[in-house]
Amino acid sequence: MSDETTTPEAESEATERRHFIQQAIDEDLRSGRFERVQTRFPPEPNGHLHVGHAKAICLNFALAEEYGGVCKLRFDDTNPSREKQEYVDAMMRDIRWLGFEWDGEPCHASDYFQQLHDWAIVLIEKGLAYVCDLSPDEMREHRGTLTEAGKNSPHRDRSVEENLDLFALMRAGEFEDGSRTLRAKIDMSSPNINLRDPVMYRIQKVTHQRTGDEWPIYPTYDWAHGQSDSIEGVTFSLCSQEFENNRPLYDWYLDQLGVHHPRQIESARLSLATIFLSKRKLIQLVDEGHVESWDDPRMPTLSGMRRRGYTPEAIRSFIKTAGVSKSESRHELVQLENALREHQNRWAERRYCVLKPLKVVITNYPEGQTEELEAINNPEDPDAGTRTLPFSREIYIERTDFMEDPPRKFFRLAPDREVRLRYAYFIRCEEVIKDESGEVVELRCTYDPETRGGNAPDGRKVKGTIHWVDAAQSVPAELRLFEPLFSIDGPEQLGEGEDLFDHINPKSREVLTGCLVEPSLGDAAPGSLWQFERHGYFCADPDGKPGAPVFNRSVSLRDSWAKIQAKGGGKGGGKGRK
Prior knowledge:
There is one protein chain. The chain has 578 residues and is of the alpha/beta class. Helix content is 27%, strand content 23%. The protein is built from 14 helices and 27 strands. The strands form 7 sheets. Strands 12-25-26-27-23-24-13 form a 7-stranded mixed beta sheet, covered by helices on one side. A 7-stranded mixed beta sheet has the order 21-18-19-20-14-17-22, with no helix packed on it. Strands 4-5-6-7 form a 4-stranded antiparallel beta sheet. Strand 8 (236-240), helix 9 and strand 9 form a beta-alpha-beta unit. The chain starts with 7 loop residues before the first helix and ends in a 12-residue tail after the last helix.
């Protein structure tokens, strides 16, 4: 075997193919700045994780794995008034569902409250932190603007001894909520507003879900975050782009303490058209009852997406395709949906479902007879095998698969026309039965017993193939169909004085009752995934019961939404959306 050498040009090309975070890690390992890779995923437990978090999860865990390192899970639980244990549990469940496992036991910022407190005293003793009596409004007035420097607090020059005494009284709970803060003493004239004496501690007499009433003061995110990274031995603290201006503060705290100093690197967040990922807005959706719960299938939360039928594989594939960059770009929802279609097409078993049933009586089929027909579970997966479908004299077809006076290109069932029942027989419509109002309620048809399996021995062809369910053994089901929750694509479409909630799509959820599914779906397990032929991909919902299943449509078979948009819908407030 001949030796191959890598040219400088090839090395350069390989480097360019690696995204900028990989290149930064490569350089830090080469230079000896770090000898290993440790990342962390640090959510605040004040809600459920959403698809935007999925990007951060995939990035942190995948990079750790790529370099043979570890990824820690840390809950930044520094704001107990908004945090709950149920959110901690939900987040751990979602991360594992995505296919990742953190190193060791989950960590919490609250694990480090004593160390953070002790380090705050270190900064006070160094003259780098002081207790401030300004109210929040007064602090904002002193802070200045992007073009005007801030003003020093009148309490900025308190002595070290006075600051230590006051901070001890804050720790002892002697002051009222919001009456005092501990602030870092940096530079009120800095062009970076984050360095204008930021708050490190605030008084908040709220019971913490882990520490109870032990602490009447709580650290701010900026004070707790970098120091928690340091304590845990994180080497690369990966953040979203909006934290770029916070990096100098992250570095300042670590430098003043002289402790292990991770490197913070920022990248663009995930942005999806029609999907709003503001946690404040998601909380409002739940609290105000615009959705049923955090796992409502219309929500972009991972729990909602799981209930709707999204798979971890599809989400990870989409995240990988979206890539890593410094500049934010909006991705179309169809990219995420296509990732799901691609995965489900390979793995979801096919089943029959009739949304709007129309009865068909096959008059020349023997009464009382039932036969079993073989159907393929998934043509993309030979190992999926086959199943049997019951077939008898009375069946149901889709009402939309029959027209009494069809247009020229309608190839399904019509009077005196023959179609193929998939996996069954050719049938011909002989008679149309209507009720008193003139609505078609039943079709009388004949079948050709020589066409079992869907082919005619004499070679005659039919242009239409339709699906069906057996009348006697089909199971009633409820189907839930979904469209985007909001009727605008992004906040830039909001008019003056408009709120996002003025644009909630009233047709974001449609419930279809009276649907019929083949008997194998009668006891479909919650979370099981299926392709309903011609209708889309569906997921069995926990609301279903044996004999009365409920299914959520995960995604249609094709991108019908894009067609609506192309015709002028979905713009300027979502006009034209179904």
